[in-house]
């Protein structure tokens, strides 16, 4: 075996990385998740609309297409 224990070490590293990642199982049903995401999207668009109405373009990008 030319790789030695490299495979085992890589598996250990992958498991360690997986522990810190976001967990998809947040205890919500798909319907609850959709409602939560829709609410977050509405808040985001409202915030962006308020920001553009005040003339502040913090993103540095223009929303108009040429």
TrEMBL record:
Pfam hit, one? SERF-like_N
Question: Do you know which InterPro entries this protein is assigned to?
Answer: SERF-like_N (IPR007513), SERF1/2-like (IPR040211)
Compositionally biased spans, kind Basic and acidic residues:
1-15, 22-46
Q: Where is the Small EDRK-rich factor-like N-terminal domain?
A: 1-34
Region feature Disordered, mapped onto this chain: 1-66
Give the superkingdom in one word: Eukaryota
Q: Which family does it belong to?
A: Belongs to the SERF family.
Q: Which PANTHER family did the record assign? A: SI:CH211-39K3.2-RELATED, SMALL EDRK-RICH FACTOR 1
What is the name of the protein in this document? Small EDRK-rich factor-like N-terminal domain-containing protein
The organism's taxonomy opens as: Eukaryota, Viridiplantae, Streptophyta, Embryophyta, Tracheophyta
